[in-house]
Backbone:
């Protein structure tokens, strides 16, 4: 019955600790109570035929109950020993994947700051869950303490000297948590969080760099101040164009030719590979593209002449 109870508790408890939410320990307590009750009931029925005295029977049932608690505590200590790996895995999952569990593409529209805050908060929730064993329903303030010390204290708006000078994690024990139920002390939590941030900072930096590179590749317009300067400084030239429509016609023709060259050369796609490779590639394709455009214009001009010649021949 001890073996059955171990099998019924070990993997479910590990899965619940990995999910790490406010309902984790209540769910573990409920699971422990249900499986222990079933095991005790089975053992009690099995030993009823041995005609044991009441003290021995109670001792065996109590031993089975304590075994269930020891299984949960042992699994919790195993998970607490690799908490840093679990925190980094959770941060990587939430930061690098969207709500549909697909890899994020940093196009420039994502709020990296908000995504980072959400991923770190989830990792901190995991740390809070693994800080102590909560098989009894005694309340503690571990979650509030970690949130205040690791998140609120890091905000730039916190200017109160008394708040800054007070470090709630400068202790070796949690308030209202016995030492035998402590898995990760406050000082250890502070050290783990510092190491966690250092090891995940590179991921955030890479995302910001990818987002900036994507913005530069997709933004071909000059900055707003340059557009405003062109409008102000080019007012006289604009009025000249309005007074002489011939300029407008020439500019329209130049625009059409430039647009055709832009599309034929696929300039936007060429510059995605870099400035120098794009120049080398465009220099080799420029003359053939111009010749191709002129040939098409010539063919279009000769096309209406063919029916005329056929009509004259008839």
Residues:
């Amino acid at each position: 019955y001890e073996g059955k109870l171990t099998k019924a508790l070990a993997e479910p408890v590990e899965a619940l600790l990995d999910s790490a939410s406010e309902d984790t320990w209540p769910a573990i307590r409920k699971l422990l109570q249900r499986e222990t009750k079933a095991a005790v009931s089975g053992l009690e029925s099995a030993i009823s035929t041995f005609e044991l005295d009441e003290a021995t029977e109670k001792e065996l049932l109590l031993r089975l109950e304590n075994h269930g608690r020891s299984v949960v505590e042992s699994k919790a200590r195993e998970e607490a020993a690799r908490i840093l790996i679990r925190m980094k895995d959770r941060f990587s999952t939430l930061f690098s994947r969207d709500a549909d569990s697909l890899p994020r593409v940093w196009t420039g529209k994502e709020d990296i700051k908000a995504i980072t805050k959400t991923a770190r908060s989830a990792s901190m929730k995991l740390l809070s869950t693994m800080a102590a064993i909560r098989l009894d329903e005694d309340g503690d303030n571990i979650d509030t303490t970690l949130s205040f010390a690791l998140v609120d204290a890091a905000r730039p708006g916190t200017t109160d000297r008394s708040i800054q000078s007070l470090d709630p994690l400068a202790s070796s024990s949690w308030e209202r948590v016995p030492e035998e139920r402590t898995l990760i002390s406050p000082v250890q939590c502070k050290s783990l969080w510092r190491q966690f941030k250092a090891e995940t900072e590179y991921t955030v930096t890479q995302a910001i760099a990818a987002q900036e590179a994507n913005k530069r590749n997709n933004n071909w317009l000059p900055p707003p101040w340059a557009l405003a300067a062109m409008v102000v400084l080019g007012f006289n030239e604009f009025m000249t164009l309005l007074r002489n429509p011939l300029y407008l016609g020439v500019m329209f023709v130049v625009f059409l030719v430039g647009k055709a060259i832009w599309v034929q050369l696929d300039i936007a796609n060429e510059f995605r590979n870099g400035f120098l490779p794009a120049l080398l590639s465009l220099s080799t394709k420029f003359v053939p593209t111009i010749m191709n455009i002129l040939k098409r214009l010539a063919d279009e001009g000769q096309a209406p002449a063919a029916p005329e010649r056929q009509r004259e021949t008839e």
Confidence is low (pLDDT under 50) at residues 156-164. The CA atoms of residues 95 and 115 lie 6 Å apart.
